[in-house]
Amino acid sequence: MIENRATLERSPDHALALDCLERAIAAAAPEAAIRSAVSVTDETLSIADTEYDLTAYRDVFVVGGGKAASGVVAALESILGDHVTDGLVVTKHPTDGDRVRCVTGDHPLPSERNVRATTDLLELVAAADAETLVLPVVTGGTSALLTAPAGDLSLTELRETTALLLDSGAPIHEINAVRKHLSEVKGGRLARAAAPATVATLVLSDVVGNDLSAIGSGPTVPDETTYGDALAVLEWYDVTPPDAVASHLAAGDAGRRSETPTTAALSAERVRTHLVGDNALALDAARDVAREAGYTPLVVTSRLRGEAREAGTTLLAVAEEIAATGDPIEPPAVVLAGGECTVSITGEGGTGGPNQELALSAGIELTGETIVAAVDSDGEDGSSAVAGALVDGETVTDRAAAREALAANDAGRFLSETDATIRTGPTGTNVNDIVVLVVPDRA
From the record, what ranges are coiled-coil (predicted)? Predict the structure, then answer.
């Protein structure tokens, strides 16, 4: 899976860090997650603990999007077979489905082809009736890939607002509170458009804490945020959107536009959401690798968030305590964490992403034998073409240059020049970031 593994695998401990990453990503593969949660027996579709009588439906539509959508489609088509009558998903790296169209879209900023594909998807959903079972697929990246500007808003205005929010350092649930109120598909609006069909959503989470309303901006999940909340996010993070966006949100806050549907508006019997995979699933797999290798594993959290460079030094401090005192666990040990850190753009904007900033900030402080590796599970750290980076005590020899790169948000360049970046290519899944710290035996 790791394309440049031969370069990075400089010792057994380096190999262990890479093994943990690879097993974690594989465990979160959409095909594996779907098959563990979805099955069909005697014309009954089971999703987790919920059953759907397939004889009650004339049509079964698979719709949705995200970076892992193609893998989910492949698994669903294999399980459901001829029960699937139509479908369309928008994804960054599509593969052909037998009955479901996988359409190419762009991420992280929406594009014209995202809009065209989402328009086609909404037309398909509009054809659903009481004898239709709609299976929305929501995976990381859905917020950008499913794009339907609300009211008179233009794609250009959505792109500018999205870019400003992504650069602001705002957490994803606050970014999505804004995006929901600028869209005809987000914030439960897809489920409302599918009425009176039965809706059973399959979610592969890329959001810390698995807030279903935030994952992919919750296209089929009731939304409790308001236009006022969206305006508050823009004010708090000092984001000045295009005038049309500000006017749209102000009109909604004044009651001149309809709000996103709340829990009361979406029947719990008609609309259900099923979480089939998340970051904890990936960390569990990495923990097994560490234990099999004879190392003591410690999962610190699957809810890591905040500034990436600060998370890097904090996690390193845990590893340093283990190495120095054996507290809270004795070395050899593997410290694991997952979640989604953010990067506030303060420099001119170089190359890299949250995982590379996390790794470089740890690398600047590294003095012992600890190894730190961090990747985005989708294989693309931020908007870069690498998954993340692996650093050890020899990676940063010029700390002044490393600090300058970090200050300029140019960690990717520095790490690339030291052969520390991790390349996987698109992995087909997306369950946030995975961080592995290997603490060798003190002997």
Answer: none
